[in-house]
Specification:
Elements: H1 2-35, H2 46-50, H3 68-80, H4 90-98, H5 108-112, E1 118-122, E2 125-135, E3 138-147, E4 153-154, E5 161-164, E6 169-170, E7 173-175, E8 180-181, E9 188-195, E10 204-210, E11 218-225
Antiparallel strand pairs: 1-2, 2-3, 3-9, 4-8, 5-6, 5-10, 7-9, 10-11
Length: 228
C-alpha cells in the first residue's frame, strides 16, 4: 500500500514538471516572437551597393548589370587618385543611347538645287531644266519644253550637244521629249541622262539644242551644276 502511494506521488510530480516545462516553453516562444516584430534582415547584396540608392521597380529583380570597361575605368581612377567616374548599369546606358534625337535640319538638298530652274528661250520655244539628281549611274536632268510660237518645231535629239566645264563632249540620252513641238503652248516633260562615269571631276555642264532640219533657233544653257 505504501509502495503504491509512492508511485502515484512520483507520477504526479513528473506530470507537474512536464506541464511546467511546456508552459515555460510556450511563454518563451511568445515573448521572443513579440520582441522580433519589425526586425528585418539587412540587405548585404553587393549588387545593390554598386547600383547606388536606386530601388528596383516593383515586380522586377534589383540586379544591375555593369559594363566591364566602366568597372576597369573606375578601378584605374581610384588607383591614380582621380575622381571616381560614375558607373551606369548597362540598361541605363542602352536606354540613353537609344533615345530618339531630333535630327538637325540640313540645307544640303536645297543648296544642291539652288541653281535651278535654268531656262533658255528662242523664237517662242522654251527649254527649262527644273532639277537634277544622280540615279543608277547616271546624272538625270529633269527638263520641260513648250512652243509658244506660231509654227511647229521639230527636233532631232542626236544633235543635243553637252559639254563639261573642261570642254569635253559628253554623250546624252533623252527620254519623254517629243520629236515635234506643236505651237499650242503645251508643256512636255522628259529627262536628259548623262553617264556619271564620263563626268569625273566636272563641276558644271553646258547644253545646246537646235531644231531640225532648219537649225533656225538655238537653245543654249551653261552653269548646269553636276549634282553629287
Amino acid at each position: 500500500m505504501k509502495l503504491n502511494s509512492t508511485v502515484a506521488l512520483t507520477l504526479i510530480l513528473l506530470a507537474m514538471m512536464l506541464g511546467a516545462g511546456f508552459v515555460s516553453a510556450m511563454w518563451g516562444f511568445t515573448v521572443g516572437h513579440e520582441a522580433l516584430k519589425g526586425v528585418t534582415q539587412p540587405d548585404v547584396r553587393p549588387t545593390n551597393k554598386l547600383a547606388g540608392t536606386k530601388r528596383a521597380t516593383p515586380g522586377k529583380e534589383g540586379l544591375a548589370i555593369l559594363r566591364e570597361a566602366d568597372i576597369v575605368a573606375s578601378a584605374r581612377a581610384q588607383m591614380s587618385g582621380k575622381a571616381k567616374p560614375v558607373i551606369k548599369p548597362v540598361q541605363e546606358q542602352t536606354k540613353s543611347n537609344t533615345e530618339p534625337s531630333t535630327p538637325e535640319p540640313t540645307s544640303e538638298p536645297e543648296s544642291k538645287q539652288q541653281n535651278f530652274p535654268i531656262t533658255s528661250q528662242d523664237k517662242g520655244v522654251k527649254l527649262e531644266i527644273g532639277s537634277a539628281r544622280q540615279q543608277g549611274g547616271s546624272l538625270l536632268l529633269n527638263v520641260s519644253m513648250k512652243n509658244e510660237g506660231g509654227n511647229a518645231v521639230r527636233f532631232l535629239y542626236s544633235f543635243l550637244n553637252v559639254t563639261d566645264d573642261q570642254g569635253r563632249a559628253l554623250s546624252a540620252v533623252t527620254e519623254g521629249l517629243p520629236g515635234e513641238l506643236p505651237p499650242n503652248g503645251q508643256s512636255f516633260s522628259g529627262t536628259v541622262s548623262i553617264p556619271t562615269a564620263l563626268l569625273e571631276d566636272a563641276k558644271q555642264l553646258s547644253l545646246t539644242l537646235t531644231d531640225y532640219p532648219d537649225q533656225k533657233l538655238q537653245l543654249k544653257m551653261s552653269g548646269i551644276p553636276v549634282v553629287k
